[in-house]
Amino acid sequence: MEKNYKTIADRYNEPFNSNFLIFLDSNSLSGTSETVNKYEQELALYFKSKFALPLSSGGASLLAALYALDIQPNDEVLVTPICPLCTIYPILAFGAIPVFCDTYEDNFSIDIQEIKNKVTTRTKCIIDIPMWGYPINAVALKNTANEYDLPLIFDLAHAHGTLYESRFLSEYADISCFSTHSRKILSTGEGGFLLTNHSNLYERAKSFIQYGYMVGNNFGLNFLISSLQAALGIDRLKKIDENLLKRKSNANYIINNINNTDIKQFNIVDNGTPNYYSLLIKELKQENVSHFIKYLKEHGIPSDIDRYKCKPIYHYEYLKKYKANCPNAEKLITSFTTIPVHPGLTQIELHHIINNINAWSRYL
Ligand SMILES: *Cc1c(COP(=O)(O)O)cnc(C)c1O
Predict the structure, then answer these.
(1) Among 200, 245, 251, 279, which is most buried by a count of CB atoms within 10 Å?
(2) pLDDT of residue 364
(3) Crossing angle for the helix pair 199-208 and 58-68, to the nearest 10 degrees
(4) 5 C-alpha to center of ligand 1: Å?
(5) Which pLDDT does position 212 carry in this prediction?
(6) pLDDT digits (tens, 9 = 90+) for 230-266
(7) Distance 157 CA to ligand 1 centre (A)
């Protein structure tokens, strides 16, 4: 076997320069400065949301969202098991209970029928997670959430720019939570934000992330983002469209050049458009997927499935007591791998990826 492949970077480290410092408000570097206010306005504008709230992490955005919805101990949250621990731990932080609902066979949406089966009087909200930026059935979810009068949260940490019927996924949710960790599409090192069109939810979340304004009427903690990160966010938000376009063009280039009939792109739900946080491809014979992932890794093409040892989240020790029967999710998470398509890829790397996918044989 050939050796000495340089491993392809699995994420994009955006070129770093200090131009962003021009956005700093010289009077304050705190999380309540003019710089953070400006970042907030820019986020709301870009994502077409009435309100945006920058904060210290994606996890903090989930905590603030759940607090805004007045989540209480033993409340139930309907959520799919295909998500990272980061989506579930904020639920546990409030003493609430994740109730795992199966996905569909071929996409990451919560199965609507599962919502109907598992909703109870204690259900507080629904959280769905468009993993790797692949769209989910936003309209069906919104309609179902409305039918049961349940707030809908989307964890869009992977999904900046993912569309459903040409609109951002966030436009369908009551609250959307984002991370801007350095592995995410919009990156401030550490950081996050939430979006909502509801002024009452925005006000509650905003108070929560700054100790309830320290007046002692409401609970709160400190999840403010610093001005430095906000300044970086303002700068990088200007380049997000370019970043997304490059990902789309890289993904299409790979897809259009795959001539190996054993490999197909992951299903894209009707009316949905991925942001290509990653490109997902399937080895059509499920039993070959792990071998395929190992083969790609040996050729310097990394996979999140290998990196994170992805499995339905209730298999982790800490979450075993919430285990549910989710046969579709069990199958789905072992049916594909992730391929990097970020803007940092060179033409040589793109060809390296294509050539190795095309050279894959189940009998290697
Ligand atoms: C990264 C991520 C988070 C957590 O974001 P942090 O900024 O690291 O707290 C939450 N959910 C998903 C789906 C993520 O990918």
Answers:
(1) 279
(2) 73
(3) 120
(4) 30
(5) 98
(6) 999 999 999 999 999 999 999 999 999 999 999 999 9
(7) 5
pTM: 0.97
* Lowest mean pLDDT across 22-26, 157-161, 183-187, 320-324: 22-26
Residue type, 293: I
Average pLDDT value over all residues in the chain: 96
Whose CA is closest to atom 15 on ligand 1? 157
C-beta 179 within 6 A of ligand 1: yes
- Dihedral of CA atoms 66, 70, 71, 73 in degrees, nearest 10, equals 140
Ligand 1 binding pocket includes 127 (Cβ within 6 Å):
no
90 lines ligand 1 (CB under 6 A): no
Give the Å distance between the CA of 116 and the centre of ligand 1. Answer: 27
What is the C-alpha end-to-end distance of the chain, expressed in Å?
A: 11
* pLDDT tens string 103-148: 999 999 999 999 999 999 999 999 999 999 999 999 999 999 999 9
Residue having the nearest C-alpha atom to atom 6 of ligand 1? 58
- pLDDT above 70 (res 219): yes
* Number of other residues whose CB lies within 10 A of the CB of residue 309: 9
Q: Which of 55, 89, 178, 179 to mutate to test the pocket of ligand 1 (most atoms within 8 A of CB)?
A: 179
Q: Judge if the beta carbon of residue 192 lies within 6 A of ligand 1.
A: yes
The residue whose C-alpha atom lies closest to atom 12 belonging to ligand 1 is 157
- Furthest C-alpha separation in the chain: 68
- C-alpha 276 to ligand 1 mean position (Å): 17
The answer to whether the CB of 130 falls within 8 A of the CB of 156 is yes
Whether 133 lines ligand 1, by a CB cut-off of 6 Å, is no
- 3-state percent breakdown (helix, strand, coil) of the chain, nearest 5: 40, 15, 45
Q: Which residue owns the Cα nearest ligand 1 atom 13?
A: 157
What is the DSSP secondary structure assignment for residue 148, as one 8-state letter? T
Q: Residues 268-303: pLDDT tens digits?
A: 999 999 999 999 999 999 999 999 999 999 999 999
Check residue 213 and report its DSSP letter: G
- Taking alpha carbons only, the member of 186, 155, 1 closest to residue 86 is 155
Query: Across the beta sheet with 123-128, what order do the strands follow?
Result: 51-55, 192-196, 175-179, 152-155, 123-128, 76-79, 97-100
